[in-house]
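Lecture 7, part B: from sequences to assemblies.

Below are the input chains for today's worked example.
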Amino acid sequence: HGSFSEEDMLERISDYHENDIAEAFELLSEAERKRWYRMFGPEQIAEIFSYIDDPDSYLKELPLDEAAKVLSYMDSDDAADILDEMDDSTQEKLVGLLDEESGHDIKMILSYEDDEMGSRMTTNFIVIHNNLTIRQAMRELVQQAGENDNISTVYVLDENDKFYGAIDLKDLIVARQQDNLEDIISTSYPYVNDHEKVDECIERIKDYAEDSIPVLTQEHLLIGVITAVDIVEAVDEEMGDDYAKLAGLTAEEDLKETTAQSMKKRLPWLIILLFLGMGVSSVVGVFETVVAVLPVVMCFQSLILDMAGNVGTQSLAVTIRVLMDETLSTKQKFGLVVKEMRVGFCNGLFLGILAFVFIGCYIWLLKSNPITHAFVISGCVGFSLMTAMVISSMVGTLVPMFFHKIKIDPAVASGPLITTINDLVAVITYYGLAWLLLIHVLQMV
Amino acid sequence: HGSFSEEDMLERISDYHENDIAEAFELLSEAERKRWYRMFGPEQIAEIFSYIDDPDSYLKELPLDEAAKVLSYMDSDDAADILDEMDDSTQEKLVGLLDEESGHDIKMILSYEDDEMGSRMTTNFIVIHNNLTIRQAMRELVQQAGENDNISTVYVLDENDKFYGAIDLKDLIVARQQDNLEDIISTSYPYVNDHEKVDECIERIKDYAEDSIPVLTQEHLLIGVITAVDIVEAVDEEMGDDYAKLAGLTAEEDLKETTAQSMKKRLPWLIILLFLGMGVSSVVGVFETVVAVLPVVMCFQSLILDMAGNVGTQSLAVTIRVLMDETLSTKQKFGLVVKEMRVGFCNGLFLGILAFVFIGCYIWLLKSNPITHAFVISGCVGFSLMTAMVISSMVGTLVPMFFHKIKIDPAVASGPLITTINDLVAVITYYGLAWLLLIHVLQMV
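Predicted structure of the full complex, as structure tokens:
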């Protein structure tokens, strides 16, 4: 280290991709980081920060005016993300120190809610008017490209400065001088509204497979764009969120979180589930008498409940993904419920028969019960298993649809309700059947 | 419909984005589709097909030579995807009819396994040599852009035709004639190997936030690129797969699947779980005597098992996401296990106390048991709940780490094993404690 001059070092480091430099940067001590800030200067530090997950903690190491310079060089959406993490007074001070243009862009992005498309857009894009010639358009592009590096789509405004369309850069590059600009403008280009919810439009814009999508106001003014990289991030985030919710977490967790933060994300679910579980327990309590006289039946309670739970989760996961991806007609929804029940029935029949045979043999041979006795009990298990699986499939499909209908996030609300309903159904079917068949009809005790 | 001439119609339709045209196309009858094929011609049909999820069924509606033409116009990776869905003899016939260049590219892509990066790449990219001037490079770009529309990154080869680096198109556009091409080439550009597994490198290349990433052979020959759109797709797929696996499905399902296909994806899990569940049942059977003399304890079995399962799933989901995202040192892994157990303990203590108080009151007041009796039982429940939660957290973290270590997909293998271990732990703790404390020590019966 001591043997390199700073210039040598800078040159060697600059050979690497910013993402790799950022990774190295995060391994440095504070003293070394301070040396880097000085060595690289605000423009390159801004580049490096845009590849770091939580750059706000590092930005705090810089004096306010330096920090403001770094923010000015960053893409407006990245800068807004960082400012969002700061306390209000620091945020205000920093925004005050920004140059006019960056300040305006960042304030606009900060004015949107976190779940609105406006909060994800960048103001880094190329825009021209629709009355230019090909040559003029090309000149504009070269001029604007110095500041804005999202050049693969050139956006076009009409004479009233409203959004008119978009040009694929490739078409502009291969166009000949005498061609008409109008001919290469795609006027039916997809767009999103600034106040649209991210999770509601991400699946739609993903399908267009474009490098960037314009963000328009209600009045069709072009105020930003969503880039493919933003889309990757948003898809990753949405899916990560769904994943976390399926696992009963209120949000995604990462390695760095403290015990208290993790507890906060997990407890809400667990408390709700505890009380719902107590409800189920009190229903099981009703069947105490069955178990008291025929203790063998209680061995298979966990089996039936677990299986009902597993089937319900399968249907839930399928339904949530379908609801997320497409808008379903009532007929399609009905079709999905019927299909899920059919799958539940077929799987249930198969597993029910397996359970009937294997559990029957187990009770007969290993617990040395009379053969009829054994197979009547295993018949109860098999039949309950099948019934529970059909009903679980139905519940696992209907409940998320219901929450989706009343605009409550089905991924969050469905889990505990489905578990509880399925547990109840399984317990009542199983013990009810055992009580009726074994004790009352067959009078086995 | 009848009132429009075909030209009118074509012009009106062409105003829309290909993705919207594709959506409309899928709603047509076969006769209407056949009319579209004729009307649009192979180049535009190729465009439309690239926005359709399963275009192979539509391609079959075309005569073989027409179909080959459409494939030639498609991006090589999209064409390869379609051919992958066809039976071997049709595939062979179609590949034989392709023009030489497309045929070569598509055969190369088809030669990779589905989970290798090579199968996801496209050969649609711009490549130049590093000895050109800025002006020559620009001319090359314009020439190649007619055929290849992924132009935002220009790839550079050295004199041996090996991968040398990449140029951001923006830098090429703003460069002045007298500048040196070398100065705008980034020689430390990230890349992937053609045989790398998609799920192993997607998280890494996502972080570089580039519009495209080159795919190199072992010998550093540039054979294709992965675009941002491919990355969105791969991220979506990977996460969708994780999601499906967490829910106990072997793969993602969509609306169109038949009952038999869905059964096939769900049954493997369920059969394994059924037999593991039978194992748990036989352990529960050991405690039959406890339940026979003290039936009230069995009411809370479902509560403890469900909670242990929920906590285990939470730990599992967190661990899997962490393992997916980063390479952990042994120290970090140990840290994660300790943290998960700490979270499990804290949550368990809290919920255990809640259970102790509420269940105690329930048994005392609603089931009219003596107060000491009631709270000794609820104490058993609370203590077992806490123990089960700590152990579940540990198991939910260790099991996926173990499978990750021995290179078995933890997302698939962990679920059933964790459920079973947790059920066993919970059952043994709870009934064991009840047996020891209530029957032997306190001799409550």
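Note for the exam: DSSP finds 19 helices and seven strands in chain A. Keep this in mind when comparing with the next example.
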